[in-house]
Design a protein that fits this description.
Blueprint lengths: L5 E4 L2 E4 L4 E3 L5 E3 L16
Antiparallel strand pairs: 1-2, 2-3, 3-4
C-alpha cells in the first residue's frame, strides 16, 4: 500500500503513485492512465 497522494481530475480523486481512483458516488477502481492525465492547455487568442 502506498501513502496516497490525491489529485483531483475533473470530478474524481486519483492517487498519483498507484492509480487508485475514487468517484464522487463512492466507488473505488484502479486505473493507471489517470495519474498521467494532463489537461489540454488553451491557446491564447489574438
Amino acid at each position: 500500500m502506498c501513502n496516497h497522494v490525491w489529485q483531483k481530475v475533473n470530478d474524481v480523486l486519483v492517487c498519483t503513485r498507484c492509480g487508485l481512483t475514487k468517484t464522487p458516488d463512492g466507488k473505488i477502481s484502479f486505473d493507471r492512465k489517470l495519474p498521467n492525465y494532463k489537461p489540454r492547455k488553451r491557446r491564447k487568442q489574438k
